[in-house]
Amino acid sequence: MVYSDVGKILIKNLYKLKGYKVMELMNKLPNKWWTKSSINMLLKKTLAQSTDSQVAAADPTKCCTKENVDLVNHLVLSQEDMLRHIERSVKSHMRQAFG
Q1: By the 8 A CB rule, do 52 and 17 touch?
Q2: How far apart are CA 46 and CA 58, in angstroms?
Q3: Are 25 and 14 in contact (CB under 8 A)?
Q4: pLDDT: which is higher, 3 or 6
Q5: Is 46 exposed, middle or buried (0-12, 13-18, 19+ CB in 10 A)?
Q6: CA-to-CA distance for 3 and 38, rounded, in angstroms?
Q7: C-alpha of 42 from chain center
Q8: Confidence check: pLDDT of 74 > 80
Q9: What angle do CA 30, 31, 34 make, to 5 degrees?
Q10: For residues 22 and 40, is the Cβ–Cβ distance under 8 A?
Q11: Residue 2: its pLDDT value, please?
């Protein structure tokens, strides 16, 4: 099965950080149509590469520091706030247009 880059990152992070097993991934994300064997193969391939240690050794700015984690959390929350604002403005425009 072909995974997008986002799908690969999602599977790897949910497995590593949240401790999700393969069946939990399939149950939590049923609209992705991932198979058990393809997720197992992807996890085996990505975890065997140990990219985290290679990236941290090659470029210290890409390693998982508290500042980087806080920055990512801030960016994610700001994106969620922006989406809520857009939803509110669309709803208000719809109310004005259709009464």
Answers
A1: no
A2: 18
A3: yes
A4: 6
A5: middle
A6: 9
A7: 15
A8: yes
A9: 70
A10: yes
A11: 65
Query: Helices 36-49 and 5-17: crossing angle, nearest 10°?
Result: 80
Tell me the domain boundaries of the chain: 1-59, 65-99
Give the number of C-alpha atoms closer than 13 A to the C-alpha of residue 39, restricted to the C-beta side: 22
Q: Give the residue carrying structure tokens 């880059």.
A: 5
Q: How far is residue 33's CA from residue 35's CA, in Å, rounded to a whole number? A: 6
Q: Measure the CA–CA gap between 21 and 35, rounded to whole angstroms.
A: 13
CA-CA distance, 7 to 93, in Å (whole number)? 34
Task: Return the structure tokens found at 14.
Answer: 């949910």
Please state, rounded to an integer, the average pLDDT across all residues of the chain.
76
